[in-house]
Amino acid sequence: MHLLVEDPAAQERIPSRRRGEDADLTLEHMVRVSGRPRWVNKLRAAVLLFAARLINFRRFGGTWRVSLDRLETGDVRVVLSVLYLPFAEMDLDEWFRAKPDDTYFKQLTDHITQVKEDLEGEDPDGSRKVIVRSKADLEDAVEAKKVAIIHCVEGGFHLGPRKEEIGPRVAELAECGVAYITLAHLFWRRVATNAPAIPFLPDWGYDAIFRQPRDEGLSELGVAAVEAMYEHGILIDVSHMRREALDDTFRELDRLDRKHRRKPQDYPVIATHAGYRFGFQDYMLKPDVIEKIAARDGVIGLIMARHQLYSGLGISFRHDLGRTVKAMRRHIDAIHRVTGSHRHVAIGSDLDGFIKPTVHGIENVDDLGALERPLRRLYPDDAEAILSGNGLRVVERAFAQRPG
Fold it and tell me: For tag attachment on the chain, is the N or C end more exposed, with fewer CB atoms within 10 Å?
């Protein structure tokens, strides 16, 4: 079994093969942020599809990397599948440095409903997949060998502009089965400051163009989100966070542990698509951050983006899976050196997260099945944990912590 941590917006992609010529309807839903004229939504959908052809699909005439068929072919049975509204984060009415708009949350919950309807159309009798809302749902899906679809959210800006509303909204997302929220993302939207993560911009170029406050990590919205997620058992994904946001997050969690008299291991922290920092990219994780994740019994999912996973490793550009396995081994071994265990690493993916080029040999989600044999050979005692067990552990613990 494999655990796949998916990123922007795998859930929209799953039904696209079924819809054929109607696939643009899913894209239109993805870009609808407020009450805009229909032609604006169609234009945004067209822009997104064109961008995907350029910087996501393997070829311009290709298609999405993730589908229900491909998940089954690759034996990917547990999917942390992300909800993301790109034209909320890049809302031209607000955009960079502005507070989130109040319309984003309603669009997010509408999106959850749309995903459910799309997946029911793909699998009407529920024989192939389960949309997970509880620990029991997850256990049933694993036992029945169905694809477990677990909602997640990419970007804290979806929660809205008022801190007093964040608690009830996080509670609503927990009821919907959301497992984690990535508070930071590509741009500063007054929630959590972010590390550069745009492949064609070096860190210094990003920092010069998209300036963020130097002395701030989490805003008051970010602190409210951390408190609400802790209370309602939704995991914090620290991927994309800048150093100041990481420090603020762990400081807030330590305070909440003391307040509620809980152990750090009771509330794991995850980095769903990241890795060990071998090079100079602020996006990747330094040893002390990895230590803090491990202290909470959390997990780091290795990103399948060549730009990040190969950074600082001197991996050649010969296109074969061996290069990817070599890079993964370097990250796995480095995390092991820091933590003393293979308990804190998993398969992170980020496929359909606009990470072109992907690592060698992993073009689509069904290619992940090819990682099983080499990882079992390299780590015979711990491969099962790396492939699935570690990720399942933290997700199950999140569901188990939920009130009621």
Answer: C
Provide the strand spans (E) within 8-95.
76-83
**91 CA to centre of own chain:** 20
> Do residues 34 and 43 lie in contact, with contact meaning Cβ atoms separated by under 8 Å?
no
* 56-65: average pLDDT: 67
Domain that includes residue 72, residue range = 2-23+59-400
Instruction: Please check whether residue 248 lies inside any domain of the structure.
Output: yes
* Least confident span in 18-27, 108-117, 145-154, 244-253: 18-27
Which is it for strands 235-237 and 269-274: parallel, antiparallel or unpaired? parallel
Q: Is residue 191 part of a domain?
A: yes
CB-based contact 314:320 (threshold 8 Å) = no
Query: In this structure, what token pair is assigned to residue 296?
Result: 């909470």
Q: How many domains, the chain?
A: 1
CATH of the domain at 239: 3.20.20.140
Give the number of other CB atoms < 10 A from CB of residue 306.
21
| pLDDT (tens digit per residue) in 342-351 | 999 999 887 7
Q: Is residue 145 part of a domain?
A: yes
The answer to whether position 29 is within a domain reads no
- Rounded-to-integer distance, Cα 291 and Cα 264, Å: 12
